[in-house]
Write a structure and sequence with these properties.
With 165 residues, the chain is mainly α. It is 61% helix and 0% strand. It has 9 helices and no strands.
Length: 165
C-alpha cells in the first residue's frame, strides 16, 4: 500500500457509493464486476469499454494482471498501467476480484470473514469499505510520520544524524 493517496481513497469511496446506489453489477463482465467498477472510477472508462478491452485477450482479471506488460500496447495493459499510476500495486489489484487481501480480511468480523462471496454485491461493498479504511489509516499514519520527520528535520538539535538522513 505504498502508493496510498487521497485520490485513490476517493475513487474507492465513489465505487462503493455507486454499488450501494444500484450501479449495474454483473460477475463475469470485466467492466461491471468488482475491479471493473473500480477501474471505471480511476480510469474513467465505461463498463463496455473496459469489457471490450479485456476481451482482446483471454483470461479473468488475475490472468490479465499476470500477463500485464506496460509496453504491449494492448488497451487492457494501458488501463492496468493507469490503475498502477493511481497508487495501487499489481498485488493489490489481484485482491478485489476474489476479496482476498489478508490485511482487509483481518478486519472483517468472524464468521463473515470466511463467508464472503466474490460475486455478491453486499460482500463486495463490505470488503471495499474495509479496504478503504485500511488505506485511510495507512495514509494518515504515513502523513503523520512524514510531517513529524519534516518538523524534526527543521528543528534537528537533539535528533541523531542517522535519523535525519
Amino acid at each position: 500500500m505504498a502508493g496510498t493517496n487521497p485520490s485513490l481513497i476517493i475513487a474507492i469511496r465513489k465505487t462503493i457509493n455507486k454499488l450501494k446506489n444500484g450501479a449495474h453489477y454483473q460477475w463475469g463482465h470485466m467492466g461491471s464486476f468488482n475491479c471493473g467498477h473500480l477501474a471505471q472510477e480511476i480510469v474513467q472508462l465505461s463498463r463496455e469499454e473496459i469489457h471490450r478491452y479485456a476481451m482482446q485477450r483471454s483470461g479473468n482479471w488475475n490472468d490479465q494482471l499476470i500477463e500485464y506488460c506496460p509496453t504491449s500496447g494492448y488497451p487492457m495493459d494501458v488501463m492496468i498501467g493507469k490503475l498502477l499510476e493511481s497508487g495501487i500495486t499489481l498485488e493489490e489489484l489481484k485482491h478485489p476480484e476474489s476479496l482476498s487481501d489478508p490485511k482487509v480480511l483481518h478486519l472483517i468480523e468472524q464468521p463473515k470473514r470466511h463467508q464472503l462471496l466474490k460475486n455478491n454485491r453486499e460482500d463486495v461493498i463490505l470488503y471495499m469499505n474495509t479496504w478503504v479504511r485500511v488505506l485511510e489509516s495507512n495514509w494518515v499514519n504515513t502523513t503523520i510520520i512524514n510531517n513529524t520527520l519534516t518538523i524534526n528535520k527543521s528543528n534537528n538539535k537533539n535528533i541523531p544524524a542517522e535519523l535525519l538522513a
